[in-house]
Design goal:
The protein is mostly beta strands and about 850 residues long. The protein is about 0% helix and about 55% strand. It has a 26-stranded antiparallel barrel. A hairpin with a 2-residue loop joins strand 27 and strand 28. It is elongated.
């Protein structure tokens, strides 16, 4: 059996569409040589331009897709005056079609058809020759039936399924298929590519050459940018074009010279240069990279990217992609042999030292091992924790704090799944010591199963076994192994208006601790914890028809009651490898543990009560949702994250409320609020008085998010985030359409209160301090026209935990139809500004 060869996606190459006529011009009057599947569009009109406008990203989308290339602002094509939309688009009809000849196409007097010699015809006054999808029109045509030679002059026009062409003169023979055209103007109908050539010659149906040729996707006769080449050789057999002495020009000014390069003529991938990237950063200075794409085989390729940093030197990047019937992945390495830059921040936690070699390696792989087994790998490693600060020039990777790596073998069936592998982490924030890295899980194995016994009862188990190892331990940290087992039985009873879901679970967690020099902190080397977990979740759903805000809705009322019982187990002698206390929110009302990870299991004798109401429109879309709830503690909460913390002795949790409103597609509001009804000792000093005291009967958390669509593709966002004694931030961003061509971009994140580090005697620790400062400020403009778009973006931002700042400037230029310069800023904006597209 022949193995299947997978095809990797293409890379967008420089001057991709310089194929021009692609040896498919009608060099002969009978037009037998061109084979294309392109579909000719109708002339552009107001209605067609409106229909081609970009559909905006729905409000509330976390990341919007990039906007597709649009030619909506282009003028109707000047060459479409002779385009005939009634001509067939089926190129396969050419082989059997008969050539129809019609004279006097202009409907004027003086039309002549002469035959001075046998089988030689001379037609003047307007001639039209058609064969299937190919049409040639000219004022004067001479054709020799014996030699198949033709000579067309006077306003020569040609149409086929993929292109339009105008020339002063076309000569050649149909057998063999050869031809010449003088002073050619052409239009590729599918890609909008157009240009001129002083002379075009076809030696056979698969090979051609053009002299003094240009290409652009701008309006005909109004080229903002274009590519010019002295000669262009076209080889349709290999799908490769070769240009000699070519230049890229903008507004008539050349800015890139390439004495020799190749480019693809069709969809086949081709080696060649990609667009360069350039910009500036505070730590690397100005930089320029010029990627080169290598089409090695249909199922693997590589991209080599040399980059020069003005402040640091030359770096080489290599990305290798592969795709086989059982495996796919990438290897990506960036290496700088001699970094001439210095650490200007003097970070006490930076681990670069005097090292000159800098690198970043990434490996991603997915392999089907057969019989349901899968191998998945995602490995990331940097030379030091200052790498992203110095080379994170894409405005996004510069904010990376922890690099995670993992390799797993998995298998799953309908009722169970299992995995075994390893996880490792690397700190890449030079503002933090390396012991902040999470424990390596070396190895980690999981097994989960859920089997239905009948329609309302399931049995299952969740299992995890982990070996925790610390590469850079802090004082008091300990290594060890952990086994966590949780078998359960769960029922599900209900109907359209009610549900009752009981669940009974037994959880066992056991340890084997290492590091014998730390026996005083953990005298028991094999501690364990076992306990049952019982819960009962129940609710009702009422609905009614109502009329609000001028529309008809279905309103629901959904009361929900959740009971949880977990007996207390003393866990002060258990280590903490990967557990954290989760932020309290609405969904915490209905979970069995407020801690993430298996090292802590809360005790509980709680009743949670919540009430939700929704408004659904006639299409079932949720337009309004409002919820409020609280946990009532029937006994004190004894298990705390830190063993020195006292038990929680109040009667109830915070009141939690959340609201979401989106009555139409132009605006939306999301809000959440937590109010503390209890008096308790203040953990941190009062920011206003500096005194310790009681806290309670006040807001613990509040968030508000507002999003408004502006003029079609614009958007305004405002967010307010508050957590008592932790932070208070304002986040505002806008994409404002100034005109059809211009958009203004801005984002400002301001912290009125925020966590900042405090250093004492060379030791950095977390302290709750309060400051008024900008965490991020971004501003820029975008310009979009028929065939050119560009973006200029400047960003000032806090780069790491020490609150040091960085400045970066990015520039992106797009020649529509060829690709874009430096698309990294677009990726950043889609993450930074909700609704940006």
């Amino acid at each position: 059996m022949t193995p299947r060869i997978s095809i990797l996606p293409k890379r967008r190459l420089l001057a991709t569409a310089v194929a021009l006529i692609v040896s498919g011009t009608a060099w002969q009057a009978t037009a037998q040589t061109v084979v294309t599947t392109a579909t000719a569009p109708a002339p552009a009109t107001k209605s067609s331009r409106e229909a081609s406008e970009v559909v905006t990203c729905p409000l509330g989308s976390f990341i919007c897709a990039p906007r597709p290339v649009s030619y909506a602002m282009c003028s109707p094509n000047a060459m479409l005056d002779f385009y005939d939309p009634t001509i067939t688009k089926d190129t396969t009809l050419r082989a059997t079609a008969v050539t129809d000849t019609v004279s006097n196409i202009n409907g004027t007097e003086g039309v002549k058809v002469e035959s001075p010699e046998p089988n030689q015809y001379h037609m003047t006054g307007g001639v039209r020759l058609q064969r299937a999808d190919q049409v040639l029109q000219a004022e004067d045509v001479t054709y020799n039936a014996d030699s198949t030679a033709y000579d067309a002059t006077g306003n020569v026009r040609y149409q086929e399924a993929g292109m339009l062409l105008r020339a002063d003169r076309m000569t050649g023979t149909t057998t063999p298929n050869q031809g010449d055209a003088d002073h050619v103007t052409y239009q590729l109908l599918q890609s909008r590519g157009n240009g001129v050539a002083d002379h075009a010659k076809m030696t056979d149906p698969m090979h051609g050459r053009m002299r003094l040729a240009t290409y652009s996707t701008c309006d005909v006769g109004k080229h903002q940018w274009e590519f010019r080449a002295k000669t262009v050789d076209l080889n349709k057999d290999t799908g490769v074009g070769t240009a000699h002495y070519g230049t890229m020009r903008f507004k008539g000014v050349p800015f890139m010279y390439l004495p020799y390069f190749t480019f693809p003529l069709d969809d086949r991938r081709k080696s060649g240069f990609l667009y360069p990237t350039f910009g500036s950063s505070s730590h690397s200075g100005e930089y320029l990279s010029l990627p080169y794409y290598l089409n090695l085989a249909p199922n693997y390729d590589a991209t080599v990217t040399p980059t020069y940093y003005a402040s640091r030197g030359a770096m080489l990047g290599v990305e290798f992609r592969y795709l086989t019937p059982r495996s796919n992945g990438t290897f990506d390495v960036n290496y700088l042999a001699n970094d001439k830059g210095t650490d200007t921040d003097f970070s006490t936690n930076g681990d670069r030292g005097d090292a000159k070699q800098r690198y970043l390696a990434k490996i991603v792989n997915t392999t089907n091992l057969g019989d349901g087994f899968m191998l998945m790998a995602n490995i990331n490693r940097a030379s030091d924790n200052e790498y992203f600060r110095d080379f994170g020039n894409d405005l996004y990777s510069s904010s990376v704090g922890i690099l995670s790596s993992g390799v797993y073998v998995t298998k799953g069936t309908r009722y169970w799944s299992a995995a075994i592998g390893v996880d490792a982490y690397q700190n890449v924030d030079p503002g933090l010591p390396n012991y902040v890295e999470p424990y390596k899980r070396w190895p980690r194995a999981t097994f989960s199963a859920e089997v239905p016994l009948n329609s309302w009862l399931d049995v299952g188990v969740d299992t995890e076994a982990v070996a925790f190892r610390k590469a850079n331990p802090a004082p008091g940290q300990i290594d060890g192994n952990r086994l966590d087992l949780a078998p359960y039985v769960a029922g599900d009873f209900g109907g359209s208006a009610w549900f009752v879901r009981p669940r009974l679970e037994y959880r066992y967690t056991g340890y084997q601790l290492q590091n014998a020099d730390d026996k005083a902190a953990y005298p028991d080397r094999t501690p364990s914890r076992s306990l049952p977990i019982a819960s009962l979740d129940s609710g009702l759903i009422f609905d009614r028809s109502t009329h609000m805000f001028g529309s008809d809705y279905t309103q629901t009322l959904e009361p929900r009651v959740y009971y949880l019982y977990v007996p207390y187990r003393n866990q002060k002698d258990l280590p903490n490898f990967d557990s954290n206390e989760m932020s309290f929110d609405f969904w915490q009302l209905f979970t069995t543990n407020r801690f993430a990870g298996a090292d802590r299991q809360m005790d509980a004798n709680n009743v949670s009560a919540a009430l939700t109401s929704r408004l659904l429109d006639d299409n079932g879309v949720e337009r309004v949702s409002a919820s409020i709830g609280q946990i009532r503690y029937l006994t004190n909460q004894k298990v705390q994250f830190y063993s020195t913390q006292d038990p929680t002795n109040f009667n109830g949790s915070n009141y939690v409320a959340q609201l979401a409103v989106q009555l139409n597609d132009k605006w939306r509001v999301n809000a959440s609020y937590q109010w503390d009804p209890n008096n308790k000792d203040r953990v941190y000093p009062n920011p206003d008085t500096g005194q310790y005291g009681l806290q309670g009967h006040e807001s613990d958390l509040a968030t508000v998010q507002f999003q408004r669509r502006i003029k079609g593709d614009g958007v305004f966002n405002f967010s307010y985030r508050y957590r008592r004694n932790v932070m208070e931030q304002f986040d505002t961003s806008v994409v404002y359409p100034v005109s059809e061509r211009w958009r203004a971009l801005a984002r400002w994140v301001f912290a009125r209160r925020d966590i900042v580090p405090v250093t004492t005697d060379g030791v950095t620790f977390t302290s709750f301090a309060f400051s008024h400062r900008t965490l991020e400020a971004t501003a820029g403009v975008e310009y979009d026209s028929c065939c050119v778009a560009f973006r200029i973006l400047g960003r000032h931002y806090v780069q790491d935990y020490t609150r040091r700042t960085n400045n970066a400037i990015m520039f992106e230029l797009e020649f529509k139809g060829l690709g874009s310069l430096n698309p990294q800023s677009g990726e950043y904006l889609r993450r930074a500004i909700l609704g940006y597209q």
